[in-house]
Amino acid sequence: MSTDKVTPKPKETTSKPASSKASQTTPKSSTQDAPQKKKAKKENVMRKIFISKVVVNMSLGTGGEPLAKAKSVLEELTGQKPSDVLAKRTNRDFGLRKGEPMGCKVTLRGQPATDFAKRALDVVDFRIPERAVDHAGNVSFGIEEHIQIPGVKYDPNLGIFGMDVCICTERPGFRINRRRRGRHKIPRRHRITPEEAKIMLSTELGIEFTQPGQEDEW
């Protein structure tokens, strides 16, 4: 027997061809290179200003028959039953006692408030002086004769009465200042400034706020 050692043959290593997926390089899309557009910020619904109510007040300084006529006129104008305004203190010069009715008022809310405000503003040609806006964004103006309101006719049995109209503005969340439990003050950053109220009223009702020198042009 031959004693020669048999050397094993080395294994042939064959390299596999690269896959087509690895060899192909996909170019980046142009949308990835372009900067992403910033999403538009949604408007904060808690910052939106709206007309909370419109208060119509007739102050007569006396009761009796004149007050009854004023109530009928106010009910005809607004479509709501007026409530009495009571005297806060006794005044002998005017013959008033504390607690006696001396006027009437109506509080309108929602769409009836907006409709009546437009009718009342038509009397002053939708022009109000800037000094009529208070620090909380409320607007007040007066009407000398109720027959100046469009669509109202003079009734000799009732007479003519003047009135004060107050348009009150609010933001969502103002209820915390009126509720019984957990009452809090409205934060300063959430309050309505006169400038913000002017912008909203000009947009919603078409009011033109005049400077002190322009009031005589009415």
Architecture overview:
With 218 residues, the chain is an alpha+beta fold. It has one domain: 50s Ribosomal Protein L5, Chain: A (2-Layer Sandwich). 20% of the residues lie in helices and 19% in strands. The chain is built from five helices and seven strands, in the order H-H-E-H-E-E-H-E-E-E-H-E. The strands form two sheets. The protein has a five-stranded antiparallel beta sheet with strand order 2-3-1-6-5, covered by helices on one side. The longest helix is centred in the first third of the chain and has 14 residues. The chain is globular, with a radius of gyration of 37 Å. The N and C termini lie far apart (137 Å). The relative contact order is 0.16.
TL;DR of this structure?
The protein is of the alpha+beta class and 218 residues long.
Strand arrangement, largest sheet? Answer: 2-3-1-6-5
Structure class: alpha+beta
- Give the N-to-C terminal Cα separation: 137 Å
H/E topology pattern? HHEHEEHEEEHE
| Estimated radius of gyration | 37 Å
Which percent range describes the beta-strand content?
Answer: 15-25%
Number of helices: 5
Which parts are unreliable, with pLDDT below 50 for 5 consecutive residues or more? none
CATH topology descriptor: 50s Ribosomal Protein L5, Chain: A
Assign the CATH superfamily.
Ribosomal protein L5
> What value does the average pLDDT take?
82
How much helix, percentage-wise, in residues?
10-25%
The number of domains is: 1
Principal-axis shape equals globular
CATH A-level architecture: 2-Layer Sandwich
How many E strands?
7
